[in-house]
């Protein structure tokens, strides 16, 4: 006799003081079968996070009591739960500050629902496997073998310089996360190079030329303007 099993819902905590946005997110995410809690203040959000242990936290920066940066830092004192910032603050400095404070991703309002859902899926996947379960990453026609230090595109081996490979490997190890310029410079070139952002532009251009079908419209190695770069393995509809 065939039995139906009910899959547990994935819990998402929304910390947003705008009632309209909070309501919209509750309806949209519930329609995607997520279990959604909404907090309207930073303090309430911190309490709900500790009580409900959500799988993902969607956090606005402009809260009435605690700034979202403060909430992020307080959460990072005890949890590695993915934090996705949803904010009208679109300045590069705000994005970098949030990521440096411990956020995993950043979307500027207004945002599209398909992109938000894609970012949530990516955050869940990354958090479920914070250490690569396999040394090989396959996305589209791109394959990276960290154990063998080999890269293929469409089945053809791609030869990278040592620096190109180290940059790509760092992005692979943090797939779908935004890595700031300072993070990448420190990881690949060392702390002394953290102000040499032109290094990144040159080497990212070289990687895109070798790995992207259209380097001018990269699908895998994407730019977060003024913030850093991301290796994408999840794409929104039409993206």
User: Count of DSSP helices?
Assistant: 8
For the sheet with most strands, the description reads: 5 strands, parallel
Q: What is the radius of gyration computed over CA atoms, rounded to a whole number of angstroms?
A: 19 Å
**How would you state the average pLDDT, rounded?**
87
The helix/strand class is alpha/beta
| Fraction of residues in β-strands | 15-25%
Topology at a glance:
Blueprint: E1 10-15, H1 19-31, E2 34-39, H2 42-52, E3 56-59, H3 68-76, E4 83-87, H4 92-101, E5 105-108, H5 113-128, E6 136-139, E7 142-145, E8 150-153, E9 156-158, H6 162-173, E10 179-180, H7 181-189, H8 197-211, E11 221-224, E12 228-231
Parallel strand pairs: 1-2, 1-3, 3-4, 4-5
Antiparallel strand pairs: 6-7, 7-8, 8-9, 10-12, 11-12
Helix pairs in contact: 2-3, 6-7, 6-8
Structural account:
The protein is an alpha/beta fold. Helices cover 40% and strands 21% of the residues. It contains 8 helices and 12 strands. The strands form 3 sheets. The protein has a 5-stranded parallel β-sheet, with helices on both faces. It is globular and about 50 Å long. The relative contact order is 0.10.
Key phrases:
5-stranded parallel β-sheet; alpha/beta; 8 helices; 4-stranded antiparallel β-sheet; disordered N terminus; single chain
């Amino acid at each position: 006799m065939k039995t139906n099993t009910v899959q547990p819902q994935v819990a998402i905590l929304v910390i947003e003081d705008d009632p309209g946005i909070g309501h919209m997110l509750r309806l949209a995410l519930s329609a995607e079968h997520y279990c959604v809690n909404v907090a309207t203040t930073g303090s309430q959000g911190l309490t709900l996070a500790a009580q409900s242990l959500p799988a993902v936290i969607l956090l606005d920066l402009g809260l009435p009591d605690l700034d979202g940066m403060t909430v992020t830092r307080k959460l990072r004192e005890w949890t590695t739960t993915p934090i996705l910032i949803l904010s009208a603050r679109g300045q590069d400095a705000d994005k970098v500050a949030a990521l440096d404070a411990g956020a995993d991703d950043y979307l500027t309002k207004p945002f599209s629902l398909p992109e938000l859902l894609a970012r949530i899926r990516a955050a869940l996947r990354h958090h479920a496997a914070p250490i690569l379960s396999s040394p090989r990453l396959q996305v589209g026609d791109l394959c990276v073998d960290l154990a063998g230090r080999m890269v293929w595109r469409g089945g053809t081996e791609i030869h990278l310089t040592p620096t190109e490979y180290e940059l790509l490997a760092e992005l692979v190890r943090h797939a779908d996360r935004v890595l700031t310029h300072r993070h990448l410079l420190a990881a690949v070139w060392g702390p002394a190079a953290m102000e040499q952002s032109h290094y990144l532009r040159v080497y990212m251009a070289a990687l895109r030329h070798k790995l992207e079908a259209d380097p001018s419209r990269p699908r895998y190695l994407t730019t977060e303007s003024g913030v850093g770069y991301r290796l994408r393995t999840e794409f929104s509809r039409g993206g």
